[in-house]
Amino acid sequence: MDFLQQLGQQTLNGLSLGSIYALLALGYTMVYGVVRLINFAHGDILMVGAFVSFFVLKQWGITPVTLILSFLPAMLFCMTMGMLIEKVCYKPLRNQPRINALITAIGVSFLLENGARVIPFIGPNPRVFPTLPVVNYKVVGINISQVQILVFMVAIGLMLLLNYIVNFTKTGKAMKAVSFDKDAAALMGINVDRIISFTFALGSSLGAAAGILFASAYPQIEPYMGIMPGLKAFIAAVFGGIGSIPGAVLGGLILGVAETLTKGFLSSQLADAIAFGLLILILVVKPSGLLGKPMGEKV
Predict the structure, then answer these.
(1) How far apart are CA 208 and CA 155, in angstroms?
(2) How far apart are CA 207 and CA 78, in angstroms?
(3) Nearest CA to 53 among 160, 183, 192, 205?
(4) Residue 183 · residue 48 · CB < 8 Å
(5) Residue 49: Cβ-neighbour burial (10 angstroms; 0-12, 13-18, 19+)
(6) What is the model's pTM?
(7) Which residue among 132, 222, 276, 280 sits deepest, i.e. has the most Cβ atoms within 10 Å of its Cβ?
(8) What does the DSSP assignment read for 99-125?
């Protein structure tokens, strides 16, 4: 395989990984955009979604159809969990200093991880996620696997659906209004609590989908599996401009490609360093991110 083919192959692999980061980053960026909270528990929603799909597939068996169908219970479960977490943990702190909610988010993350470890039917030991048979197709000399096709189809479909919800529905427009000014939105008759709950539900459902795709690509699941993808997705959201939906997608794709090119041409041990290096670089050069807008702070 010559250099150009290798470059094309690694770029394709990076776009596949970046699509998963982008789905997860959308949850971070939507929640931050609406309630100015960095929900560090969001990475663990990925883990929960993967485990729900795992148990469903254990019952149904693994076929392309059952794998697609397993998204529905996983996304519904995580959607409910996201709303419950918001109601119980974050809503009481909404008018408190932001650091309180941030610390609570870290606590919720630990609760989900360690709670999963002690639940008998999950436990601390890694499980093998059911996977489809390995099938590769060759396009202009570049291999694309069946799993990568699934990742692209699901990620693009969900992003288009999210774009429709945010830009063309009444609830989506209310989300944008609340993100701009909660008080003014409330005066205009928008139910702010309902919109915030909807935002958590939407972000958590995307996190569940990202979890299934991640487990399909890297078929080992365990209670701490959401930590590193969660951090990478957070970096992607910041890199693209946290609060910006197109920025989260762009940041996820750039991060995925950068990470995969590093693994392919430099060293796999440098992949995480590149991700965190990009975070430092963007914070120094353009703190608002590639597509973010500078926001003034009230003093």
Answers:
(1) 12
(2) 8
(3) 205
(4) no
(5) buried
(6) 0.91
(7) 222
(8) HHHHHHHHHHHHHHHHHHHHSTTT-SS
